[in-house]
From TrEMBL:
PROSITE patterns registered for this protein in UniProt: HOMEOBOX_1, HOMEOBOX_2, PBC
Chain positions covered by the region annotation Disordered: 347-395
Gene name tied to this protein: LOC109080555
UniProt entry tagged with the keyword Glycosyltransferase: no
SUPFAM superfamilies named among the record's database cross-references: Homeodomain-like (SSF46689)
UniProt DNA-binding residue ranges: 227-289
Organism of this sequence: Cyprinus carpio (Common carp)
PBC domain location: 33-226
Protein name as it appears in the record: Pre-B-cell leukemia transcription factor 3
Amino acid sequence: MDEQSHLMQTLVGVTLTGHPVPLPVPHDGTDARNKQDIGDILHQIMTITDQSLDEAQAKKHGLNCHRMKAALFSVLCEIKEKTGLSIRGSQDEDPPDPQLMRLDNMLLAEGVSGPEKGGGAAAVAAATAAVGVGADNSIEHSDYRAKLSQISQIYHTELEKYEQACNEFTTHVMNLLREQSRTRPISPKEIERMVNIIHRKFSSIQMQLKQSTCEAVMILRSRFLDARRKRRNFSKQATEILNEYFYSHLSNPYPSEEAKEELAKKCAITLSQVSNWFGNKRIRYKKNIGKFQEEANLYAAKTAVTATQAVAAAVHNSQTNSPATPSSGSSGSYSLPGSGDIFMSMSGLNGSYQPTQVPNTGQTQGNGGWHDAVTPSSVTSPIEGANSIHSDTSN
């Protein structure tokens, strides 16, 4: 302000007491020449952007070779110090963006970024271990890995383009500032501050890229891995094995740990799946006993037929290994004994044999709250006729 007031006083022509001093009136030719010079300077300033590269280089060379360049540089330094356009302190540095850090951690956890550079092996291994690995879902795992690898490749390709563009623009600005520092005062810290400003501007592009990649990975997980966590029915063979065990132990349908392990091995499922199946089966059976009555009859008849076939095979083997010969009245063949003979024979062979029995209606067990389990009162074998096997619980 002092310089401006001093300049205005000089131009207007006032004394220290504030009284105006008459200035000499310039000639008309001098005034016109000054106006023309100012007009030329303004015109040159306005047409700087329209200059070609060669013209700009010529102007720059002329400025650098001018004898008043040092004086111009010192004046610019004084103006800069007085107007306060100095370097900002370190307190103006912005902290790291928390959202960007969160996106980086998510990409690292999913295996998109990090040391493996898009392999995603750790993420796939963790996801498959949480869900369970089987032969049926190996194709889904390969599809998931292929899709994740594709997302990772796109991410790294775009990230390289972003880094290249950011570095090119930053280098261009740094070279431009170094070139201008020959004419106007620019310190290295100011250049560094400008680089940080450029990086903050570019960080919005980086954040958008990482956010889009995270969204793509989440959609992929929901389509593949999360869909595999839904309920899936067991195979028909596994269901048959579990139902057969359940109805054969209907009086106490609580398998031991050894039985669970054996069933899990036969059905190719986990131990927890076996436990969950029996728990759900007991609940469904209690809620709708009438519906499962027919199913219980079928499995009981199947068990009876299996036991009869096993007894017949055992008797046949014992008679084949016996040295006794058939009676002379037979023509070299003998008929299989009836069902009563089979049971008597097994009683003589094994000491005691009890045919498969189904518990009576209203039998109560105290194990695990299994109460009022209604079971079929009579089971008839589907092979009734020749051997006419009847299993009555009243007997």
